[in-house]
Structures are given as C-alpha cells and as structure tokens.
Specification:
six-stranded mixed sheet, 6 strands, Nuclear Transport Factor 2, Chain: A, globular, alpha+beta
C-alpha cells in the first residue's frame, strides 16, 4: 500500500483534493491536533478547504512505509498563515490504516505548540501548548468546515 500513500502525497503536492479524497474510504476517520477527529465527508471536505485556502502550500514527503493493512510517512508543509502571512513549516508524522484498497484511518501527528508559535506569534507561543487553546482551535476549525461548501 505504499503506492497508495505515494499517490496521496503526490496529489497533495499537486493541490488535487479530488484525487486525494478518492483514495479515502467512505468511512474515513481523520485525526490531527488542529481539527481533532473528522469522519466521512467532513474529513474529505477538510482537504478541499485546506488546498483552497493554502494556495502557497508546498509539501515534501519521505519515509513511506506500509503493508496491506497499515502505512506511515513523514511529510512537511510550508505555507503562510493568516492575514499577516506568517511563515509556517509543519513537520508531520502520518499513520494510515487501509481497507479494501482505500485509506480508512489517517492520523497526522505534529507539535500543536510549535505550529501555534509559528502561525500566531507570541500568543501562540504562550497559549499553543494548553488544552484550552487546543479545544478552542478544534471547535473553530470544525465550525468553519461545517460552513464550507466544496466548489463545483
């Protein structure tokens, strides 16, 4: 299944959300520190939103490993964040589970505190490591996704 993971990250690098979500199982469960746990269409919608709102995002990936049921990779995203266009370099460890030739579980792990410090400056440095910050960020992120519509 390493080919599936390679295809996923090639599509991400190409800003091809449609290709990415075609590799997800309909019952996908995605989890990361910013969004928390997303399921099904909401998880798929997140990639459309991310690519639409991150036109300058560049990624590279490496160390893709996998077998018939699980896989992993390291990837790095570089982009600017917010109105102030703060530069962010996010280093991510991804883990996957596969079912019927599709990704059914995708977990991205990274330092939320480090991300917050880069994306939000001194406020992120102070608050980014707190449970309060994480819960508030996840609530805002999920609310934003709820109101987002995939372009036709």
């Amino acid at each position: 299944m390493t080919e599936l993971v390679n295809t996923f990250y090639t599509a991400l690098s190409d800003h091809d959300a449609e290709k990415m979500v075609s590799l997800y199982h309909d019952e996908i469960v995605f989890k990361d520190p910013i969004f928390g746990e997303l399921k099904g269409q909401t998880a798929k919608k997140m990639w459309y939103w991310l690519l639409e709102n991150g036109p300058d995002m560049r990624i590279k990936y490496s160390n893709v490993k996998g077998n018939d049921s699980t896989g992993s990779a390291y990837w790095e995203a570089r982009y600017t964040f917010g109105l102030e266009k703060k530069p962010v370099i996010n280093k991510v460890k991804a883990n996957f589970e596969f079912e019927n030739g599709k990704i059914i579980k995708h977990t991205d792990d990274f330092s939320l505190h480090r991300w917050a410090a880069q994306s939000m400056g001194w406020k992120g440095k102070i608050m980014g490591g707190t449970i309060y910050f994480k819960k508030k960020l996840q609530f805002k992120s999920r609310t934003m996704l709820k109101n987002y519509h995939i372009p036709s």
